[in-house]
Write a structure and sequence with these properties.
With about 300 residues, the chain is an alpha/beta fold. It folds into two domains: about 5-230, Spore Coat Polysaccharide Biosynthesis Protein SpsA, Chain A; about 230-300, no CATH class. About 40% of the residues lie in helices and about 20% in strands. Helix 1 packs parallel to helix 2 and helix 8 (about 255-280) packs antiparallel against helix 9 (about 285-300). It is globular, with a radius of gyration of 19 Å. It starts with a strand and ends with a helix.
């Protein structure tokens, strides 16, 4: 029996997180309508052993768990390999450092059963801090850590928003039409460049508008101490700027102008937010908002 959905987990040197991720996905899930596919992107830790342990039990229970090694380094390469290997008409990408809610898998299966022609969709992501949240980490920086919540109602995404990579689904056939993820964008090893998801959704939106938000497809993105430092946010912001530069490399003058109008609007929007934090005596949150915007611009203009 062909599964309805393939859940693809691309992983790089996070065996300890992957263990928890697979456990949360597989516990209490008895449906034969899905398969799990782990794409190991050149990990040199215990990732293969972690997957093998789960394969011993899951494959007996009729819940296939497959392991594939992708030697081309980079998240986009790993995702593209997952697309090619998936046996289902629908695929969902999940991060390797998440905890799935009990509703996650049933919600995705139900969504595609009820919306078989939906081109793409995104689920809800809440951040789970494994270590204390620093005082400078405002709510407005949480999307950097994967937070994504558009409410509790099924809806189509507005034009200025799109699903987050840690919980996004696609009709597999759409990749035959619009192409795969751009390997020049996205994370590679320890590099924090991004932009591959936004670039893909821009291509999809050239012909389609039915990208749905699925609120019951909820997961928790785990964040450890290493990602709660100013150095990490700095590196991530530089990566965003560098990715923006790559995306706009062959853009028209009008597209570049529109992009910088949007970035300028985001910078200006930081002023009232900062004033709000100053009013409640939280200056570190206000300062970090401006540093983040500054770092993005530095990444863009970096040689």
């Amino acid at each position: 029996m062909q599964p309805v959905i393939t859940f693809i987990i691309c992983s790089y040197n996070r065996a300890h997180y992957l263990d928890d991720t697979l456990y949360s996905l597989l516990k209490n899930q008895n449906s034969p309508d899905f398969e799990l596919l782990v794409i190991d992107n050149n990990s040199d830790d215990e990732t293969p052993e972690v997957v093998k342990e789960y394969q011993k039990s899951t494959n007996k229970d009729g819940k296939p768990l497959r392991y594939i090694k992708e030697t081309s380094q980079g998240l986009s390469h790993a995702r593209n390999r997952g697309i090619k290997e998936a046996k289902s008409p629908y695929i969902v990408f999940l991060d390797d450092d998440i905890r799935a809610s009990e509703s996650l898998i049933p919600a995705w299966i139900s969504f595609y059963e009820q919306h078989p022609n939906a081109i793409a969709a995104g689920g809800k992501i809440h951040v789970q801090f494994d270590d204390p949240r620093p005082p400078w980490m405002s709510h407005f920086l949480l999307p950097l850590l994967g937070h994504h919540d558009l409410g509790n109602s099924l809806k189509k995404y507005p034009k200025n928003k799109y699903p987050f990579g840690g919980n996004m689904g696609f009709k597999k056939s759409i990749f035959d039409e619009v192409g795969l993820f751009d390997p020049d964008l996205g994370r590679k090893g320890k590099s924090l460049n991004a932009g591959e998801e936004k670039e893909l959704f821009r291509r999809i939106r050239e012909n389609y508008s039915d990208i749905y938000y699925v609120p019951n497809a909820l997961l928790y993105h785990r964040v450890d101490a290493d990602r709660l430092t100013k150095e990490y946010i700095h590196k991530q912001a530089l990566g965003l700027g560098q990715s923006m530069k790559l995306q706009l490399k062959e853009a028209s003058t009008l597209q570049k102008l529109q992009n910088w109008i949007l970035e300028t609007a985001k910078l200006l929007g930081s002023f009232p937010l900062a004033l709000g934090y100053l009013a409640i005596l939280q200056p570190s949150k206000a300062i970090m908002l401006f540093r983040f915007r500054k770092w993005i611009w530095e990444g863009y203009f970096e040689n």
